[in-house]
Amino acid sequence: MRKNSIKNTRINGEVLKELSNIIRNDIKDPRIHPMTTVMQVSVAPDLKTCKAYISVLGNEEEKSATIEGLKNAEGYIRRQLAQNLNLRNTPEIRFLLDSSIEYGVNMSRMIDDVTRHDREAGSDSMTEMEEMNE
Description:
Blueprint lengths: L5 H21 L9 E8 L5 E8 L3 H13 L1 H11 L7 E6 L2 H34 L1
Parallel strand pairs: 2-3
Antiparallel strand pairs: 1-2
Helix pairs in contact: 1-3
């Protein structure tokens, strides 16, 4: 099976959906932050390994605690995936922290700051020009 085949894409989507449900509903570990999202799942074509990109809305301590809690619960999560999905092999899951949402929010904030600064600078120069014309 090729990496970008339709079958692999469909398996990635199913694993993503089931993994999200398991993390949200089944895991009771207090280390796992309530605002945890599975952003993307990449299952290897041989179904042996899986990379799960996790996003956590919180500070660095909460993020590291959430990843540690998920790593400790990997056996339980794999067992639940095996029960819920009919796959030849249940992949070994590696949880990776995804900071793309945080990066996007920071970039958006910086763009807003620049546009606000430009608007303020533009209004100041307009006021000066009006005073000179009078």
